[in-house]
Amino acid sequence: MEPTQDYPLFGGAFSATLPPGAIDVSDLRPVPDNQEVFCHRVTDQSLIVELLELQAHVQGEEAARYHFEDVAGVQEARAVQVEAVQPLPLENLALRGCCQEAWILSGKQQVAKENQQP
C-alpha cells in the first residue's frame, strides 16, 4: 500500500495529506487558480479545495454551508449531503493573523463529470 503524501496547495501557502493514489487533476486539464483538484484512479472520487470570497451576509457555520450549497447549485448536483461542520482552532492556522474564525465542512455532492449529463 502506498503511503499518504503531503501535497503543497496554492503555491505552498498550506498543504494537505492526500490518500494513496491521489492524482493532481491540473496535470490532466486546466484547473481554476482558486482550486486544487485531486481524483482517485480506483474510486472515481474527487477532492476539491477551493478558496472562496467572503460573503458578509453569512457567518460562521452558516457561511460554510452557504458556500457548499452554492457550489452544489452551480454544479447542478443531484444529491448534496453535509456530513460535518466544525470550527478550526485559530492557533492551528498559518493565516491566524488574517482570520477571526475558520470552518471546515465535510460533505458529498453527486455531480456529473466534465463530459456527462447532470
TrEMBL record:
This is Ran guanine nucleotide release factor isoform X3. Pfam families: Mog1 (PF04603). It comes from Camelus ferus (Wild bactrian camel). One of its GO terms (biological process) is heart contraction. One of its GO terms (molecular function) is sodium channel regulator activity. Transmembrane segments: none annotated. InterPro entries: Mog1, Mog1/PsbP_a/b/a-sand. One of its GO terms (cellular component) is nucleus. The keyword Protein transport applies. The gene is RANGRF. Belongs to the MOG1 family. Keywords: Protein transport, Transport.
